[in-house]
Amino acid sequence: MMDSPYKPSIKHCSVLLRTIAGNISPNLDLVFQVVNKFEATGNSLSKSVYDARRLEDAAKVLNEMQANGCNPDIKTWTILIKGHYSANEVDKALIIFSNIIEKGCKVDADLLDVLVNGLLSQNKAIKAHQVLEMTETR
Predict the structure, then answer these.
(1) I need a surface site. Which of 16, 38, 95, 100 has the fewest CB within 10 A?
(2) What pLDDT was estimated at residue 41?
(3) Which candidate, 60, 52, 51, places its Cα nearest to that of 21?
């Protein structure tokens, strides 16, 4: 499949990644090959899941990957948080952010931009200020 002209759909990529993540020792090279093949077709895996409003599925895949030792990067978390804001799920976005902070992940400017602008678009200026304070103390 990796060298063929076959273009996997969102559904097929999700199944492949879940299967890989479910193994006792996941093959990270295979994960990258699947994602790279999907993105070579002009798609973004994280963006596709977000566009399809399959945020819960994305969260499950991320949890499975983490359980098997494959930790997502800050960009992946940023896209997931952005998806929750887009779906008016501010509380879920803030829970994910709290989890990121608890895990000791380094927050970048893109994530802060998504968090603050998402909160401000929901008229939650005080929460936006609290987020900024939270990141400054770390």
Answers:
(1) 95
(2) 65
(3) 60
